[in-house]
Amino acid sequence: MKILYIIVLMQFPLIALQAQTEMEPPVGAVDMPSIKTNISRIYGKILDSRTGKGLTAASVQLLVLPADSSQPMEKDSILRGMLTKDNGDFSFENIQVAGRIQVRISAIGYETTEQTINLQRGGGNGGIEKDLGNISLGPEVKKMDDVVIVSKATGLTMGIDRKIFTADKILTSAGGTAVDIMKNIPSVSVDIEGNVELRNSTPQIFIDGTPTILTLDQIPADHVDRIELITNPSAKFDASSSGGIINIILKKNKRIGMNGLATISGGTPALFSTNLNLNLRQGKFNFFLSGGYNQSGGRAKGQTLRENKENGSITDYFNQYTLNERSRKFSSIRFGVDYAMDNRNTITVSQNFVKGQFNNNEVQDQEYLNNNKILEYYGERNSDGKFGFDRSSTKLNYKHSFPKTGQELVADFNYNYGTRSGSNNIINTYFFPDGTAYQETALVRNEGDNKETQFTFQLDYTNPVTELTKIETGIRSFRNEFNNTYAAFADNNGTEVKLPLSNNYEYTETVHAAYATFSGKTKSEKFSYQLGLRTEYSKFEGELVDSAFKFGYEYPAGIGKIWNALFPSFFLSKKINEDNELQFNYSRRIRRPRFWQLNPFIDINDPVNLRQGNPQLRPEFINSFEFNYNRKYKTGNFLGVLYFRNNPDDITEYSDTITAAQYQQLNNAAVDPNAIVNTFINASTTNRYGAEFTLQHNFSKNFDIMPTIDLQYRTVNANVKELNLNNKGFNWEAKLILNYKTETTKSSFFNNFGFQLTGEYESPQVIPQGREIAQFNVDAALRKDFLKNKKATITFAVNDIFNSRRWGTIYDTERFYQDSYRRWNVRNFRLSLSYKFGDANFSFGKRGGNQGGNEE
Which end of the chain is more exposed for a tag (fewer CB within 10 A), N or C? Predict the structure, then answer.
């Protein structure tokens, strides 16, 4: 801890060196860049150059300049005008004019100063803000350079270090959840339980730039504005983002007045959702509100085929066929306010509540055959589970921007709280082939609940030291408290007996961090670089309450292990020309084991595939290298990536048959005597060599495609219990997104129809004891905008057209061979209707004058 405190204290002199002038920060995600969209606000502050104080009642005018600079200005060229406030602030809202605009500033006794801004308009939602900084008036005119702002809204913005996807462009997600968005984003894959992988690694999920306890299926797709993918984060980001970062930016605009979007959706099986997004901007306040309800259902199949072995010979066979009928219901509400104290100081407060309920009814048919495949006995297992949860998230953000362009200070505080409870009843019956009882019926009942509390504080400071160099520094503190109670009971001749797998546990996880980065570029701007260093102290303290058994880790454990606390990063870019750029980057990250990977508790939901944590797990460290080539051309964009990931102590799944002692302990828990226990180990090392290629190509303004292919070769080196688990192999995945829009010269119902088709294939992938089976699926959607100004939209989507999305594994070991697959979602059809509404003149109280200043 002493090391951390020293590093934290080192941050404040860097901030204090710049604190002699005024301050302010960015809105939204702390670590994420904003997307360039329509201009909606121009603001600044007028100062007396001699006293440094704000000028009251200085005149600020916006004038529209002719497109041809050689032409004279028209008489009625004045667009807007206002007088500055007592502190010198001025602000023009909701600017809708494209072209060249002149900002003319004058005051009695001061010389006039002018500034020209070129506005090139494009599509997009909401707007951005242009801060002209502190403008001093005095005996000398300060000439300022032209500012060019380019705006373009597309489904994908590709950069060297990240990809940004506009959620509204993903038609197949309309009326669904964030899981439906992720399924249609290149480089991202989603398993049957809604977990995402980025290049076959687990990324960290952010909402508006900060970690969350929400899962993706708890976030309505209609509330998402855009998705940002960062495959190799710099030292500025949390070091545990070893698999990259997926940042979900929720909708919130700042257009004047009231604006909203309402959506209702229905489909099969058992699909229904309704969502509302509302925004109101008035004076210094910007209020936002979103709420929704989402439900889904379906009956999904699963299958397990196993051969048990001894000394290389098959001893018997086991087959299991599963049918799971599920129901999932979510409701959510999010609200908040931005308060602009002045042009450079803003406070944002937001609150989010999510509530959910799951029902699962699962039936498993089991067959037990001898080595000649003759049925010896069979069984049926019925499981009826009910689960519910509540989540809440509170966020407080303060931002302060200095007059110096790019200099800013951001403070964030996040509080997350959640509870979950559930119960499950299991009945296992076994019969001989003639239908007589093989053994007594096994009855198991379990129930449990848990609660989780998270606190996060983060402070970030950015200072462009010169026009070519920039320093970024910050601190972060995170604490997570979790406790769980779980009780399992077996029926023994009408009397409930508490089983040994009953489990009460709790843990506390803390991470304290500090970082600093220095970036710069050459005068020609052809070369740019960034050097960064992050230090983190992490501690995990877990305890099985009933037995007082403790488990966990601490990094670094002492000064001699200081390297375990340091995470450097390096980025180097070469701009060949305006359309071609190369980049090399390196970062060191950490992947800490999750609590369920550490907890020795045995999960018996599947009687033949048990899961148990390993309290001896250690965090793994990752060295990640990338080489990127980005090329823009007239009709599209191409991004090629070569990458290498080296994972010492890779956290890897390991499976073995249940021991006699374990089976005896769980004899009344309705588990199979040949069940497989899936746990986790630290492999010696895992290496991934990969190449990824993404193309965005426009055949015309109405037809574009976006293919992505990821090629990867993986080697795993691991040994456990004198077993050699080494494995290696090649795998690849490809995704194609196709968009087409109809357009006719005459007014027709078939005009402006949008069509989207998404196809994905994942090849088999090696794991230490076998491979994951191939997956493929196809989604499609049809969209039609109608009514005046395209205020209404209707979308019809089919997800998993061929009903082929499944997740499976083949284990091939000395003791058993098993081929199994599971499904969570099934093919579904969804029809969605959305309507945009708004009133730029809406106000809670009609008051005279301008709310942002005194416009002339």
Answer: N
